[in-house]
Design a protein that fits this description.
Radius of gyration of chain A: 17 Å
Shape of chain B: globular
Number of strands of chain A: 10
Helix content of chain A: 25-40%
Oligomer: heterodimer
Strand order of the largest sheet of chain A: 6-7-8-3-9-10
Largest sheet of chain B: 7 strands, mixed
Shape of chain A: globular
Number of helices of chain A: 9
Largest interface: A-B, 35 and 36 residues
Number of helices of chain B: 9
């Protein structure tokens, strides 16, 4: 079943056409990687799916329902969770409180269920031991984990990840990959924008490449790494 | 004489000490890679060298002159320039205006606007767009261009490849030898270990705020280096022929 459908989406900032007719159907349970040159429109696409931006043209459907005009908050409650490139937790709140806000506001859970969801999200992301630490004390890896935990605490059916592996060391990246893979294996649909190919190819079964606001490639990660057009527009010589 | 010499640096935030007696030398035209887990103190060290953070103890000299007490803006004028993690652009200014911010103080050098646009064609294409409207990767490219525009003597790079497409990262690292050849010393924080080793002459590994390993990048044992990140007991003592473990 198609969980998420993006239909002929256009987006323009002033004279700059960022998305120029993107259509994409994501089946339930799939992990999809999104790559592309800087400025290709990857984050804009995530914004449009999450509801932070309304497309100039085109539709977004979730489980068959048209959510194009639904607010970001409404979409979170419909099951669309996301992370941001630059994590901005509530610094003076604890790690647990940060996850709790997501569970209460995002999943509309009441007291006990919200506490349970927040703890479960911290456990899944390896942050349980940091539950009572104030978020401003976290290292980058921990902030990224908290970003993921907050998204998971909203209990998403589709999880949108925006460059979550950037800035991590090799072993830290490996640890995060393990966490994301476990989330995927538990059945969550994932759309992952990432430049770290090594991370992406270990989790996703399908990859698309955006360039100049259009879909340049759609296939398996292996095919993508070998694709001459993708290499020219995005990868350059050294990867793959 | 070292271009940049860091001696016995202690630094931190309020009651939290992040650096313990860190010493480091950077010769003219030399690139040193700084590696370590997140939280090891890499960014704190770069910020302290840049003058954004006052050290608690220890000193920093540039060409033999003590700059420990110099505020960041004076250090930038002396040629110590930081590309900070997380872009930090002026959102209401255009990409080009951001790059021209240090222009009033710029030294004559290879990094003209034309040269920077050649390095980052995507910035050239967006030169008249406000920085706030650029994508994350485009902002990162503008931040690097802004630092280079000052034609620095010591360039502090905190994860410059963050958010950049692989082809652009390649282009930047292919240019690094030319930057070194012009006499610029580079202190580089890079998470891609292979790239860090390939781009530098020496590598320094930090663990919990201390230098635990230094060595010639060309002959450093990669596995020993990664083990040193985490203070793993599997790190061989002495870490090979060239590495040096200080405890």
């Amino acid at each position: 079943m198609t969980l998420l459908q993006v239909e002929d989406v256009h987006q323009q900032f002033g004279a700059l056409k960022v998305l120029n007719g993107i259509s994409l159907a994501v089946p339930e349970g799939q992990a999809l990687g999104v790559v592309g040159p800087n400025g290709a429109g990857k984050t804009t696409l995530i914004d449009i799916v999450a509801g932070g931006r309304r497309p100039g043209r085109g539709r977004v459907r979730l489980a068959g329902h048209d959510v194009t005009t639904a607010s970001p908050g409404h979409r979170v409650r419909l099951g669309v969770g996301r992370t941001y490139q630059v994590p901005r937790p509530f610094g003076s709140m604890t790690v647990f409180e940060n996850a709790l806000v997501a569970a209460v506001r995002g999943a509309d859970l009441r007291r006990q269920a919200a506490h349970a969801a927040a703890y479960a999200a911290l456990a899944r992301t390896g942050l349980a031991a940091k539950a009572n630490v104030r978020a401003h004390r976290l290292t980058l890896l921990e902030r990224k984990r908290l970003e993921l935990a907050r998204a998971l605490a909203t209990q998403p059916s589709v999880l949108l990840l925006d460059e979550i592996a950037g800035g991590l060391t090799e072993p830290e990246t490996d640890a995060l990959i393990g966490t994301i893979r476990a989330v995927h294996e538990a059945g969550t649909t994932i759309i992952w924008v990432e430049h770290i190919m090594r991370a992406l190819t270990q989790v996703v079964e399908r990859a698309v490449c955006l360039a100049d606001g259009r879909l340049l490639f759609d296939g398996t990660p292996g095919q993508m790494l070998a694709d001459p057009e993708v290499r020219r527009a995005y990868l350059g010589g050294s990867v793959g | 004489m070292s271009t940049l010499a860091v001696r016995g640096l202690d630094a931190g935030y309020e009651d939290f000490q992040a650096l313990f007696g860190v010493s480091l030398d950077l010769a003219a035209g030399e690139t040193v890679a700084l590696v370590g887990a997140n939280g090891a103190g890499k960014t704190t060290l770069l910020m302290t060298v840049a003058g954004a953070l006052r050290p608690w103890r220890g000193g920093i000299t540039l060409d033999g002159t003590d700059i420990t007490g110099q505020p960041d803006y004076q250090r930038a004028r002396s040629g110590v320039v930081l590309v900070p993690e997380g872009r930090r652009l002026f959102g209401s200014l255009t990409a080009e205006e951001n790059i021209l911010v240090p222009a009033g103080r710029r030294e004559a050098g290879p990094w003209t606007l034309e040269a920077l646009y050649e390095l980052f064609p995507m910035v050239a294409a967006r030169r008249s767009h406000r920085a706030a409207l650029l994508s994350g990767g485009e902002q990162q490219a503008v931040a690097i261009a802004r630092a280079l525009a000052a034609n620095p003597r010591v360039l502090l790079l905190d994860e410059v490849s963050l958010g950049l497409a692989p082809a652009i990262v390649d282009a930047f690292y292919q240019l690094l030898p030319a930057i070194q050849a012009s006499g610029v010393s580079v202190l580089l924080v890079e998470q891609d270990v292979d790239r860090a080793l390939a781009a530098s002459s020496r590598t320094v590994c930090l663990l919990e705020g201390r230098v635990v390993m230094t060595g010639e990048s060309a002959s450093l044992d990669r596995d020993a280096l990664i083990a040193a990140y985490f203070g793993s007991p599997s790190a061989p003592p002495g870490a090979g022929d060239t590495g040096r473990v200080r405890t």
